Amino acid sequence: MPYTINAHKPTVLIVFGGNGDLTKRKIIPALFNLYLENRLPEKFAIIGTSRTKFTDEKYRTDLLAGINKFSRTGKAKKEDWAKFSVNISYQAADIKDVASYDEFESTISKLKNEWKEDPSVLYYCAVSPDLFCTIAENISKSKLENNHETTRIIIEKPFGRDLESAKALNKKLLTIFDEKQIYRIDHYLGKEVVQNVMAFRFANTIMEPLWNRTHIEHVQISVTEQIGVEDRGSYFDNAGILRDMIQNHLLQLLCIIAMEPPVNFDADLVRDKKVEVLKAMRKIVPGMIDKVAVRGQYGAGWVEGKEVLGYREEAEVNEDSNIETFAALKFYVDNWRWQGVPFYLRTGKRLFKSASHIIIQFREVPHNMFNNVERNLPKQNRLIISIQPDMSIKFQLESKTPGLEMNLNTVDMVFDYDGKTKIDSPEAYETLLLDVISGDQTLYMRADQVEAAWEVVMPVLDYWENNKMNDFPNYPANSWGPENAEALIAKDGFHWINLPDKNKKE
Ligand code: BG6
């Protein structure tokens, strides 16, 4: 049910890559849901653009199919769609040709006259990264709006393919826009449970005294995916999972766990604290890479009764590709809070199941007084933050099993986003789009943040690029990845924690 009448400025959103998968799967369903919740400005217009020619009508029909397939709120009601879709139009354009931008300019002018007010103008680059600079340059060369207060540019990932290219891209963008106009997306930051970590850590007094090396033994961050590279072979075979997932999503999760409390929610204060974490991460030097980083590539196998291809057999992938589809790494954050606490990060494609979670494992009790009972070792407490598909924050504590003996049992204290709460939780793109409309950069990546994240992964990236693996593929589809990944964490006396399906104990 609508509960907020939105007071934002009139807004024009131009979506470059308007006919792409991301637009249909994520951007338009997110905007539609914001519309249903009365969160969009009263006056807004969405202009999709790509090279292919369409009528507005055909374009809208395609977008509606996307909503019906992908929106968390299910199929659109006819009357809602009719009211929303009048705000959408389509303009075929060659985005490399500066002349095509004149047409956008005349549409914006028309809207300005109609609305009798200057709108915010948002440029969304949902295109291949090699076009980011071209779009920015053409915006600057054309008569298109670039008011430093009301114009914003949204840049999808990947932001660069290494430190140098990320720096060059930042430099170019910053000659045209101010930092406060640039919105670099990392959609993990918009996920509901990820945002809740800030509330959980900083709105509860009981967390802070526990949140450090004295009480925490180690941290695991896992983002495992059952899917393979699907139809993104040509992109992925140039990237690999270190670039695709670790440099951005997993390192950002690590920052949220490790950051110091910011003074308030000011976007720069929050981002300063995250940058501090990245700067404190122990530099991985070439000689130690094999001890702290493991890579893998999936082979063929069976997933849910269907035979699936190995990575090298996927479309548009090199048949002797050395690209990794799995990575596990161990990091340290060298500061007072985290000295000596390992952070293990793991992600991969074609793994046993899709699940994203963070596990904070607390230390053992200093003295075991329960040694005369059936299960004589109290298990270590864990905080389990499940991001998806289950959404929950769970404390695992030890408790007495009801009965005549003093037997121990692990019990869960759970905050579960079950049922309605889960359905009502906005998708990451809803949060992120609303933030860009209202000009809030807190959940977006700042230039120095992206560069600091690249700095962390560069030594591994360089080493992996220059040292081929002879045993690829080294894990079958539908497994938990290569054996070495187990060895990486087992050396320290731990094991990867794979969560059971909901409601079952590990
Ligand atoms: C994207 C990666 O950024 O994140 C994909 O490019 C990956 O390879 C995706 O599949 C995972 O996102 P989510 O939200 O489905 O966990």
From TrEMBL:
NADP(+) binds at residues 51, 94-95, 157. Signal peptide: none annotated. It is an enzyme of class 1 (oxidoreductase). InterPro entries: G6P_DH, G6P_DH_AS, G6P_DH_C, G6P_DH_NAD-bd, NAD(P)-bd_dom_sf. Residues 14-196 form the Glucose-6-phosphate dehydrogenase NAD-binding domain. It holds the Pfam family G6PD_C. This is Glucose-6-phosphate 1-dehydrogenase. It comes from Kaistella antarctica.
